[in-house]
Amino acid sequence: MAQLTFDTEIHEQDGVLTGPFRFPVQMLAEQEYGGHLSIHDDDQAQALGFSGAPIEGPTHFSQFDPLLYKIWGDRWFESGCISSHFKNVVVEGEAVQAFVELPTASDNITKIWAVKKSGETVLEGTASMGPDHPETRLEALMSARGTPDNLVLLEHVKIGDQSASPEAVTMGYDQHLGNSYPFTLANKLDKITETCRWYFTEAAHASPWGKAIIPIEMISPLVTHTPNGLTGPKGPSIGLFADLEIKIIKGPLFVGQVYQLERAVVGLGESARTESMWVKTLIKDPKTGDVIATTLLNSATLKQSYAHYSEDAKRLGKVTG
User: Fold this and answer.
1) Are 45 and 36 in contact (CB under 8 A)?
2) DSSP assignment of 225-259, as one string?
3) In sequence order, what are the beta bridge partners of 296?
4) How far apart are CA 213 and CA 283, in angstroms?
5) What is the pLDDT of residue 55?
6) Distance between CA atoms of 237 and 233, rounded to whole angstroms?
7) How far, in Å, CA of 56 to CA of 162, rounded?
8) Residue 228 near residue 144, CB atoms below 8 Å
9) Are 25 and 66 in contact (CB under 8 A)?
10) What are phi and psi for residue 274, nearest 5 degrees?
C-alpha cells in the first residue's frame, strides 16, 4: 500500500471504524436549474418545510474515503463503490460523523452510515470492492420496490428512456461547472472535509497512477453538471437527491481527462411527498469504450413544488391525499 494519503483521525471499536465529526460546507446556495434556484437556497428550502438549505448528499461521501482507504488501500480509488440512501438532510453548521463496519477477510462489501451529533441518521448504505461488485444497498432497494402507476410529475418519463447520444465531459481544477454547480474543483478542494494529497497536481507524481484523481464526491457533479438529455419531471419544480451510488470499475477517474457519458432511466418511484426518477450513468473511456465507473441517482421531486400538481392529477384520474 502506498503511504497513507489522509490525515484523518480514525478510531476502531467493536469492529467499527469511526471518523471525526466534520462540518460540511454548503456550496450550492446559488445553484439554478430550470431558470430558478434549487432546494439548496435557504428561502426555497424553508418554503418547502425544511429547516434550511440541505448540503448536497455526495458531500458526505468524502468522510468515508479515509475509512474505506484504511480497509482497502489504493484499490478503493480503483474499484470502490459507495451506495447510499439519504435519510435526513444536513444544513451548514451541523456536525456529521461517518462509520464503517469492518468486513471479514472474505467479504468485499460492508455497511456504512453517518449521523449528526443529535444521533439523527444522515445516510445509510453499503461500500463494496470490485470490479465485480456484489449487490449494493441501492440495487437491493430498487429490486424490492415496484413501479408506481399514474405518475403526475413524471407523466412523460418511462423506464428505458435513454439520452440521445454520448456526451463528452471533463473536470479541470479551474473549470466552472455552470449553474448546476456554481463552483470549481479548486473551490471544492479548499472546502472538502477530508484532504487527500493525490487530489492535487503537485503531489500526483507520487500517486500509484502518476496523475491527480477526482475525489469520489465530485464524480456526481462530473456526470450531472450538464443537461442529461432525458425527459424529466414537469416544472418549474424542485427536487433533491434521495439515493446515490458511485461505483468505480476501472478507475481512478483523473482530473482533466475526457470521459463519455451514457444515461438511461432505470426506475421510477413515489412517496407521499415526492415522485422519483432513477438514472444510471455509464462513464466510459471514449477511446476504448471501457466502462470506467457508473452512477445511480434517485432524484426525488417534491409534489408541492409543482404549481399544477393537483390539476394534472385530476386530469389523470389520480387520487391524492
Assistant:
1) no
2) SS--SS----SS--EEEEEEEEEESS---BTT--E
3) 245, 280
4) 15
5) 87
6) 8
7) 25
8) no
9) no
10) -135, 160
Type of residue numbered 242? A
Of 234, 64, 250, nearest to 154 by C-alpha is 234
pLDDT tens-place string over residues 79-127: 999 999 999 989 889 999 999 999 998 899 999 999 999 999 999 999 9
Q: How far apart are CA 110 and CA 108, in angstroms?
A: 7
Distance (Å, rounded) from C-alpha 244 to C-alpha 220? 9
d(CA 297, CA 290): 21
Rounded to whole angstroms, how far apart are CA atoms 117 and 97? 8
Contact between 182 and 176 under an 8 Å Cβ cutoff? The reply is yes
Q: Is residue 1 pLDDT above 50, yes or no? A: no
> Under DSSP, is residue 281 helix (H, G, I), strand (E, B) or coil?
strand
Reduce the DSSP state of residue 78 to 3 states and report it: helix
Inter-residue contact 152 to 318 (CB < 8 Å): yes
Please state whether the peptide bond connecting residue 131 to the residue before it is cis, i.e. omega within 30 degrees of 0.
Answer: yes
pLDDT digits (tens, 9 = 90+) for 281-302: 999 999 999 999 999 999 999 9
Q: 47 near 230, Cβ under 8 Å?
A: no
Q: What is the pLDDT of residues 249-286, one digit of tens each?
A: 999 999 999 999 999 999 999 999 999 999 999 999 99
The chain-wide mean pLDDT, for the chain, equals: 90
pLDDT for 237 equals 86
Listing DSSP states for 104-140 in one string gives PTT-SEEEEEEEETTS-EEEEEEEEE-SS----HHHH
Domains and CATH numbers, the chain: 11-315 (3.10.129.10)
